[in-house]
Fold these 2 entries.
Entry 1:
Amino acid sequence: MLNRKRFRLVSIITAAVVIVGGAASLIAVSHPHVPAVTSSTPVTSSSTPSTVVASSSPTSGSSSSVASAHHLISLAKRERTLSASEAKKYEAIPVLTLAGKQTAINAQRQPVVFVSEIDPSILQQLAGQSFAKEPVLIVTWPVGKQTIMQNAQFVEKEAKQLHLRSEVVALRGKYTAWITGIPDTYVGHHGHLVEVPGILPANEIHSWATLFH
């Protein structure tokens, strides 16, 4: 009799386990795990003067460069003329000098290059050239927990080591409202504002002097 009771008890427990396990399987099938989807697509911007482009996009939510197997685009294909409405806001880009003074830069009158510690390679391309109008280096897109002023100080140090005469300032406000990538250049040309994203191919570096006329 005792053995029969034990057998019934074991049978009941086994049946309960089977039912619970089946229910869990049913729930897993009915509600499968859906992995998070990210849409971080880099925009056109280069980081090293080689044949491989490492794009840095401020809209990707990532502070790292993403390599892509594309050759650097020539200047002729890279230039983009902004519409009058787009260009209007670049007549007063809000910046901070390294002394902490608030001011504004007019890209129609003075070429500007948006740079970041994330990708300072543009500084190497500007080094050793003579410009009719020295571009202003506007530092944006801070790295990690650093402040924008700390990043600006880093860029200024790099610029001095390369003997650049360009003024270094820090952007005030959100960078996504001003740039499409890092680096990003804006220069006035015959009454229009032209954007040149990224760096240039090695054989076209001299074209910066033509742009900053």
Note: The chain has six helices and ten strands.
Entry 2:
Amino acid sequence: THPEITMIRNAHRRFVKFAAAVCGAAVLAAPVASTAGERGKFQGLAVLTHVGFQQIKTPDGHPGGAVMIGEMDGLVFNNARGAWLDKAHYQVMWKGDGAGTGECLKTFTMPDGKLFAKCAGKATATGWEGTIELLGGTGAYAGVKGRGTYRLTNVSERVMWDLLDWDWEKP
């Protein structure tokens, strides 16, 4: 194999081990519940890695070019060092097209529940950016709604940063 491929594989293995250790620590953390009528602003930084990717090309000459689907897995860190979604397990399922538009489903998992979101975005020179809509969740995140933005930046072929910023409320 090529040395670059071996280096990427080794880095990915180290990241997966690190992510598993941090997720395990997050499971042991005390839950942070949100109560009815509570509002907040969340800003976070996530690290993600591709765990699945498929591309289906259109017939020659079609302006759409291709349809792509993929999965990413990682961790979120709360910029304010607060407990809300800090060290949450972060999963993204996405689909995109050759024209540079896409949609995704995001799941944030904490010991006290899951928060679900959907996103829409467009390709940029360094990754993707777009909007997020919070859809509620389970446990402490049941009923949580909100809107905001994300900006995903490709760090390498397999690793990305995701800057998250949204306002949320629990009716």
Note: The longest helix spans residues 3-28.
